[in-house]
Design brief:
Layout: H1 2-29, H2 34-41, E1 45-49, E2 56-57, E3 63-76, H3 77-86, H4 92-105, H5 111-120, E4 125-133, H6 134-146, E5 152-162, H7 170-173, E6 176-178, E7 194-196, H8 199-203, H9 205-209, E8 213-217
Antiparallel strand pairs: 1-8, 2-3, 3-4, 3-5, 6-7
Length: about 230
């Protein structure tokens, strides 16, 4: 019995020594290159913030022209599949159907069309719509978050001018055109812009255009945002 105990203790001591040496090597030599991995993880990504074109009011403060941002939303199917695997009580197809219904209930899209896009696409990333207004996106994100569904990806698509008074003073207000409509917009090499062509839109184009900004973000392994004091926004 004493021999077995001694062997057990000896094995534990050897294991402990090996573990201490391994930790020492990790700290001193970094054989797995953890330092560069950490540095890469803490390197913030920069997201461009496209300004909304300014509003135009009459002298009584009545809104004549405003802007509405529209977004493109995609679904990362791989992320949704991993979610279904870690939650076996949730059926993958039911999750797809529910996501389609959430988007349809808060936009002009049809749930049947969205569900078909998701289930029939062979790509891991599925384009669901590029015509979701900012207010619709806020509602969609809220319900998606409530259900803890991952995989929803959204990006800026375009800006549309809105006229609450319809055609009132249309010639005075003027027209705008985007560099996307003229074929000059390349998401990888240029910024989306609306430019005034006639009327007040052209006269006060610089004031209405606004200024571009950017936001720094750092995410963890689960793609959740990590707050850092040095990040700029």
């Amino acid at each position: 019995m004493k021999t077995r105990l001694r062997i057990f203790i000896a094995l534990n001591v050897i294991f402990l020594i090996i573990w201490i040496v391994y930790l020492f090597i990790l700290q001193l030599f970094d054989p797995h290159d953890f330092e560069s991995t950490i540095a890469l993880r803490q390197n913030p990504s920069k997201n461009l913030i496209i300004p909304n074109r300014g509003n135009i009011y009459d002298r009584n403060g009545q809104l004549l022209v405003s802007s509405i941002k529209h977004y493109q939303i995609d679904l990362d199917k791989n992320t949704v599949k991993k979610f279904a695997q870690t939650n076996p009580e949730r059926d993958l197809n039911e999750i797809y159907q529910h996501i389609a219904e959430i988007i349809a209930e808060n936009s002009s899209e049809k749930s049947s069309s969205l569900a078909k896009k998701i289930t029939t696409s062979s790509s891991s990333s599925v384009l669901l719509s590029n015509d979701i207004s900012e207010s619709q996106l806020i509602k969609i994100k809220k319900v998606i978050k409530e259900n803890k569904y991952p995989g929803l990806v959204y990006n800026f698509s375009y800006i549309k001018r809105s006229y609450p008074k319809d055609k009132l003073a249309a010639s005075l207000l003027g027209m705008v055109k985007s560099n996307k409509d003229s074929g000059e917009y390349d998401p990888g090499n240029s910024f989306y812009q609306l430019k005034g062509l006639t009327g007040l839109e052209a006269t006060f184009n610089e004031e209405l255009s606004g200024k571009f900004g950017w936001q720094e973000t750092i995410t963890d392994a689960n793609n959740k945002r990590i707050p850092f004091l040095f990040l700029k926004e």
